[in-house]
Amino acid sequence: ASPALSHRVFIVAVYNNQAYLAPGLDLDYQYQVPSPLDSASTFSASTLGGDQQISPDYHDISPRPAKRQKLGLPKPAKGTKNKSMPDVGQSAEAAVAAANKPKRVRTGCLTCRERHLKCDEGLPDCQNCRKSSRICKRGVRLNFIDTTVKSPPMISPTEDWKVKFQDESRDIASEYKGGLARYSHLDQTITPPREQLLEFSTRPMIIDPLMSVETNALPPIQHSAGPYSDGGLSVKQEIAPSRGTSRHHSLSGSSESFLVPPSTSYSNPPEQTLTQPNETRDYLNSPEEVLFMQVFVEEVGLWMDSMDSMKHFSRLLPFHSLGEPMLLNAFLACGARHLALVNPVYHEDKALYYYDTATTQLLRSLQNPDRDTVICATTAVILNVYEIMSERAMQRMNHIAGARALIKECGWSARSTGIGAACFWLNVGMELLSCLHFNWQVAWDPDQWGVDMDFQQETASGQEEVWVHRMLYIVGKIANFRASIPRFQEASPHDEQIRLQTRYAEWKRLKALCDSWNSNIPRTMHPMAYLYPAQTSSKSAFPEVWLIKRATIVGRLFYHTAMCLLPQINPIMSKDTKEMHDMQLSHAHQICGITAHVKDRGVASVALRSLAIAAECLVERREQEEVLDIFEKIRKETGWKVGFLHKELKLKWGWQEQDAAQQQMAAQQNSLAQFFPSTTQASATSLPPAPPQPPPRAMPSGILNPLLKTADFSLPNHPYQQYYQPPNLHQHHQFAHNYM
C-alpha cells in the first residue's frame, strides 16, 4: 500500500459488507465492497479530494451504478466482479429493514405499557398520552411470579417472655451532618456511636503497651498475682443482680449482674439514662460501677499516678467524677478494660460501651465553645490510657493526638500544678515510652517542657517526684539524640570530623546530666538494701535492689535506662569496647534486679520498657530466660500483651538460630531412627524443622513521633477535625480551681 494515499481515503471501517465513512465526509449513499481490482484496473480518486491513483492492492470501494454517472466516475472493468462474494444488495436491504424496525424501549411510560403501545418516551408526557388525554404514568413496575404466603412460625408467649426495642435512630443520624440536632429535645437518652464515627488521622501500627452460667454471686478465688487476676476476684461480698435503674449507665431492666458471664453480647447495649451535668451523685450505687471503679483505683490508677505526688487519678478525680458523667464513663471504661485483661470471665464489650459513651460525650462537649476545657482534657487523657491498654492499640488510637492538643490548649506544662501537672507528666511519659520502643524523636521537645534543671544537693525528703521529672527530661533528650543519629557520612572528611565532635560533646553533656542527677538526689531515692545473687535464697541471677517509694523506683528505672542507652549511642567509642560494655551491662543488671524483686504493680509501665532495653545487653542464657519469666509475671499481674517482646528479644539473642540447629539435629536423629528403630522411640516421632519465618516489617525509626506531630489545634490537620470548636477564652473552670 502507498503511504501517501493513506490520508486520502476516508473509510474508517467495513462491517457486514458495508463501508462507513469518516464523520467529515457527508455523502448521502452507502458504499459497497466489490471484488478486488486486477493489476490493470485503477480509477481516479479526485472525487474524494485527491489526485492520486488508487493502487490495485486496494479494494474498489465504489458507489452503486446509479450514482456513478452522477459523480462522473468511470465504470468498473468487466469481469472484475468476484464470483465468490455474496450478493450484497439483498444484505443491504435486510440491514436497512432491521434498522427501521422499532426497538423495544425500556424507559417508556406505564400507560403505554398497559395499552401495549410503542411509547416515544417523550417528556413530560409522551405523544400517545397527549393524543388520548391520558395521564402519562412514570416509574418501574415489578411483576412478582411467586406470591405464595406461608404462616410464619410462632412461639406462644410465656410468663418470662419479654420484648425489647432497639432504637438505632440516633446511631444512624449521627452519620449525617446535623442529624443529631434533630434529637436535641430527646437528650435524656444516648446511644454510643459506631467506631467509624471517629475519623481521626492515624496509621495502623503496633504501639508499645504500658503495657485482649448465670449466678447471683461471684465465688471468691484468691490469686497471688493480684486481686483481680486470673480466675476470680478477691471481692468476697455477694452482689445480687440489679433490677433497678442507675442514674449512671447501669443496665436498665437487666435481670442479671455483669459480674457473671453474660448470656448475650453487649455489642449493642440498651439505651442508658445520663446524669445531667449539674447533678452530683452522693456515691456510686450500682454494683457494676462500684466494681469497675474499684479496679481502676486499685490497679490502673496506680501507674497513672506513679509521677504525681497528689495521686489525682486514684484519690481525687474519682470523687469529682460523681458530678461529671463524661469523666465517670472514662474511669469505668479503664476499669472494665483492665478486668477483661486479667480475667477471661469478663468481656471487652462492656469496656467498649463505656469508652464509646465517654467519647460521644467528649465530642459533643468539643462542639460547645462554653465547655470546661479542663474536664475535656482530663477525659481525653484517660481515654488515651484506655486505648493503650487495648489489645489492638493502634486501631483505636483516636485520642492520643487529641489529648496532647487539649493539654496544649489548657496551657499545661512542667510548670503547672494540680491536675494540669498530673495530665502533662502522664501524657509525656506515655509518649516517651513509645519513642524508646520505636526509636522516634519526642514530638514535644523536652527543652519546651519548662523543667527546672537546677541541680542542688537535696537534703529534704518528699521531693522525689521533682527528681523523677528531671530524669524524664534527660531520657527525652537521650531519645532524641539516639533517633537523630546520622545514617550517612558527610562528603568531606573535615565536615564529618566536625559533626562527630559536635555529637560527642552533646553525648558527654547528657552523660554529665545523668551523673549529676544521681549525685544530687535525696537519700530516699537510693537503695535501702542491696544483696548480691549469692546472698539471696530466690535463686535469681540478678541482685536484689530494694527501693521503698514508688516514685523512687520509677526514677531509678529511668536513670538506669538512660545509662544503658548512652554506651550504645556513643559517637566516638563502640559499644563493644570494654568500658562501654561494662557500663551498659552493669546498669542492665540493676534494672533486672529492681524488676525481678519489686512487688509494686504501679511501676509495671516503666518496668516493661526498661527491662526490654536492659535485656538486649544480656548474653547469658540463664539471665535471658529469667527476663522472660519476669515479663510473664508482669503479664499475669497487669494483663498487658508482651508477646511481641518475647519475639523481639529472642531474635536479638539469636535463639532462632539455636532452635533451628536443635531442630536440625532432631531431624538427623529421626533419619537415623529409620535405619535403627531400636535406638530411641522419641526420635521416631520428632517433628521436621519448621521453615524460618520472615521477620516482621520494621517500623520507620529516626523520625519525629508520627502520632503526635499534628497534635496542635493551631495546625490545619489537627485532631477532632469534625467536632472541635475553639473555646471561649474567659470561661471559668471551677474544676481546675478545686484540684490545683
What would you say this structure looks like, in words?
Helix 15 packs parallel to helix 17. Helices cover 41% and strands 3% of the residues. The strands form 3 sheets. Strands 1-2-3 form a 3-stranded antiparallel sheet, with no helix packed on it. The chain has a two-stranded antiparallel sheet with strand order 4-5. Strands 6-7 form a two-stranded antiparallel ribbon. The chain has 740 residues and is mainly alpha-helical. It is elongated and about 110 Å long.
What structural keywords apply?
DNA-binding transcription factor activity, RNA polymerase II-specific, 740 residues, single chain, disordered N terminus, transcription cis-regulatory region binding, Zn2-C6_fun-type_DNA-bd_sf, 21 helices, nucleus, two-stranded antiparallel ribbon, mainly alpha
Number of strands: 7
Q: Write the element-wise H/E pattern from the N-terminal end onward.
A: EEEHHHHHEEHHHHHHHHHEEHHHHHHH
Question: Which ranges are low-confidence, i.e. pLDDT below 50, for 5 or more consecutive residues?
Answer: 1-63, 79-85, 188-227, 229-277, 675-687
The largest beta-sheet arranges its strands as 1-2-3
Tell me, briefly, the overall form.
elongated
Radius of gyration equals: 40 Å
Helix content: 40-55%
Mean pLDDT: 74
Most strands sheet: 3 strands, antiparallel
- Give the N-to-C terminal Cα separation: 95 Å
Strand content: under 5%
Number of helices: 21
The secondary-structure class comes to: mainly alpha
